[in-house]
Amino acid sequence: MKYPEPKLAGVSIASAKATRRQFIKGVIASGAAMSGAGALIGCSSGGEGGAMAGGVERMIRLNVNGIQHTVDVLPNETLAMTLRYKLNLTGTKLGCDRGECGACTILVDDVASYSCSMLTHSLRDKTITTIEGLEASDGTLHPVQQAMIDELGPQCGFCTPGQVMSAVALLNVNPSPTRDEVRMALAGNLCRCGAYDNYLNSVMRAAQNA
Amino acid sequence: MSKDMMAAFELYQPDSVDGAIDLLREAGDGGWALAGGNDSLDWFKDRVKRPRTVVDLSGLDELRGVRELPDGGIEIGALTTLTEVERNGLVRERYGLLADAAGRVASPQIRNTGTLGGNLCQDTRCWYYRYGVDCYRAGGSSCYADSPQGQNREHCLWGADRCVAVSPSDTAPAMVALDARMVVRGAGGEREVPAEQFFIGPDVDIERMTILEPGEILTAVRIPADWAGARFYFEKVADRNTWDFALASVAAAMVVSGNTIERIRMAAGAVQCVPRRLAVVESVVTGQPKTEATAALAGQSAVRGATPLNFNHFKIPLLQNLVMRAIRDA
Hints:
The complex is a heterodimer of chains A (210) and B (330).
Chain A: E1 7-8, E2 11-12, H1 13-16, H2 20-29, H3 33-40, E3 59-64, E4 67-72, H4 79-86, E5 105-108, E6 111-114, E7 127-129, H5 143-150, H6 160-173, H7 179-185, H8 196-209
Parallel strand pairs in A: 3-7
Antiparallel strand pairs in A: 1-2, 3-4, 5-6, 5-7
Helix pairs in contact in A: 5-8
Chain B: E1 10-12, H1 17-27, E2 31-34, H2 40-46, E3 53-56, E4 66-68, E5 74-77, H3 82-87, H4 89-94, H5 96-103, H6 108-113, H7 116-121, H8 127-131, H9 171-177, E6 181-186, E7 189-194, H10 195-198, E8 217-223, E9 231-237, E10 248-257, E11 260-269, E12 276-277, H11 279-285, H12 292-302, H13 315-329
Parallel strand pairs in B: 1-3, 2-3
Antiparallel strand pairs in B: 4-5, 5-8, 6-7, 6-8, 9-10, 10-11, 11-12
Helix pairs in contact in B: 11-12, 12-13
């Protein structure tokens, strides 16, 4: 018996002969992005591009990393989904999607927040910073990022963007923290490799170098 | 099982409290008031709660911030984040108990977005209920936690009535200890409810944790001057120091003159469906010297009448010790 080819967002996966990553990036970059992404994350959308009956307008302006994006956002869409699947900012990771791991940590008006646990529509007037927004325009890494490399902070690296964002939020308000203060600031970020001490070393070095 | 995408809902972002109340009244049972979203979005992602209309309160700036009241107390807007409550100068100076409690909630990121109102109004953490089974609290006809093999390590010592879930809030016991007033607004206007009456157990209504009716919003809490600058004690015990909900917590406010406890208010969290006012302890220690002996007596009297389930006997000595420490160390 021959099974039909799996289909996703109207594109045949088998015939695309691309890696998953290329495929997803291709969908995001293509003109099908806005309507396709709704299907990609398994959700029916309301009127195409219009407002839900009486509810919020779906096309919104979002300030991410200093750039004003115009993006079509579902009422039930979290910021993590918008960042990853609409804006292609995949440095923000989704671990638990329940506010229990910290991999999705980003800054909202310079305050560390879980992007999985906020609706994008609540953030229209806010300034959002993701891991991609930390490095300087010439590619110089943020002191925390550089210290992570110098101190071999990450092990597998999946939780690292979230750890970096929490550390940056701390150093913005407290440039010379104690090790305990760093520990408290990173308490909302899980590391399954258990590289916590390495992360603490990194942030302490960043505080000295900054 | 991946249920991470929330079911569709209509989202409204009113710019006034009255507008929000109108929307919630219109939506009736299908409506949901959203503040910080930390509790709400979990429910939606698990598809256990599926509101048709979500009213996002986050644009209501009038519900943010800490204000001084004419009588010397303070009023805290319900949308003030837990981080703001923890760090606010007025709160720290006069009501350190509340600052301590707010600082022990969940994780830094959750405190940054989680609101005081949301922490007070959040639903219980009984995992059978959270999982979406048809228990009493969900409108069904059984309790899965209070069954021969039910896992009820986190559940109640008092007030079981079909449901054995407990109040998960860290700030709620502090509110009861400080004798705070909850400001509730609905279509009929505003009313003030003492914190002790704001929270309700399964004997009153098994499907709600607070007196809030559909179409009503907790807009602020008012803390009277009575306990400003008193001696405070807050301690929370959980399996993990971050994220975790309390296995037991204790919040106490007392005025001591010389070495005599002149007056005291005390409440415990996570041992009953409501923050449990420890009135017996209050009457036992009032007028007594603040000594080890009084503290030991207080601990013993705190757990009188506790009715443990199969797996939560440990909460009895735990609470006893917390109360003992509160009297001894406040």
